[in-house]
Specification:
Elements lengths: L4 H30 L7 H38 L9 H5 L5 H27 L7 H6 L1 H19 L10 H6 L4 H6 L5 H22 L9 H24 L8 H7 L1 H22 L10 H34 L1
Amino acid sequence: MILNMYVVSYLLLSFLSLLVGGGAMVVGVRVALKWKAGHSSEEQYQLEKKVYLSMTLVMLGFYMRLALAPLWFLMLQSFVPSIPGAMCLAGVHLLQTPHSFISTILKFVLPMAYGYWLVLNALDRKIESQPLMKWKLYALLPLGLLMFFETFSDLRFVFSVKPLFVNCCSSLFDDPSSAIAQKLTYSGWGWAIGFFGVGLSLLALSVFLLRRPRHRAGLLLWLLGPAVLISFALALHTRFSPLFLRAMFHHCIFCIWQKLPDTILATIAICVGCWAAVIFAATRNVYKIAGAEAVADAHAKALLKWTVGALLAGMGILAVRWVVESM
């Protein structure tokens, strides 16, 4: 195991989030089994006190988990100088597969799940009857299981890291053995054009939904959000990395992040935009609750503004970099 400031910080924050969030989740699920909305008994009063404390702790735990995502990549980057043969995060990942790649993928997926719960909780607190109380309490169970699975995968990787020689990104990405990997790493413009195509489609739909947030077209966000994320990753890997790094046959998303910090900002912005779009799609059912329309509209517009602003920022950064490198 390699120890440094980033590893200690990551482990400490990870254990704290489990301790705070995990304990609160157990209390929350137990309260959900006894919760009776609208009752004014002494037992219900005691449950309300417990649930508000539990909600506060869960929020704190989820915010800690969100902070772990960037810290994870900083920790992996700190391993690069200590691992012979590693030139970027690809080499670090190869030390312990598949747990390293699973943990990294979860850092892009789980923040969306935590964000969904946080938005749902904010919606429910602004509706006087709090109709979503039992739903958000029961939702803590699968989120808690995902949190524990992520921590298990992270720890299994972190405690197994040793300064062993590894091959790096060139052998992993530039000369793949499988036919599928070869197609994914070709240097054509297909994925880049596809990314801007679906990205602009998501932007246009989000602008339309800002005026009509209850329109059924909002269901398309379930498809467009993930499509933008996947096409962005493939575009960055297949075409933008050889173009921006000025290495014609080198495909590595980790190298481009390491050498060009603006692509990190673009990645963060595009992820935030897609997460906001999918969270909006997931919370559209709130419109079915009587008296919740005004609150739902306010949150819908906030999420859609985040989608539009973040996507414009991310795609703008990439477009500027594209123009500069093509000159």
